[in-house]
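Researcher: Please translate sequence to C-alpha cells.
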Amino acid sequence: MLFIFNKIIDNPILLECIQQDDAIILIEDGVYNLAKPGFIEQINSEQCYGLSADIIARQINITDKITLANYHDFVELCAQHEKICQL
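Model: Translation complete:
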C-alpha cells in the first residue's frame, strides 16, 4: 500500500497502520512531519519518500532515511501500488 501524507499527522496511531512493505510519500504540508522529533522513527516502513519540490519550498531538513522524489517518481509510486491511502 502507498500512504500519501499531505497534512501534519497529529495522531501517532495512524502511523501504527503502516507495515514494513508499505511505501510512504510526504507531499504538500505533509513534509512538515519531517521536522517533528521522532516522526521518522515511528514509521515502520523502509520506503519513505518526500516530494523534493515541497521539501525545498518549505526549507525542510531531511535525514538519510528519506528518499527525495520528483513528480515523475510520485506518479511511478502511485502506478506501482494497487492500494493508495491519502492522509
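Researcher: Any highlights?
Model: The radius of gyration is 12 Å.
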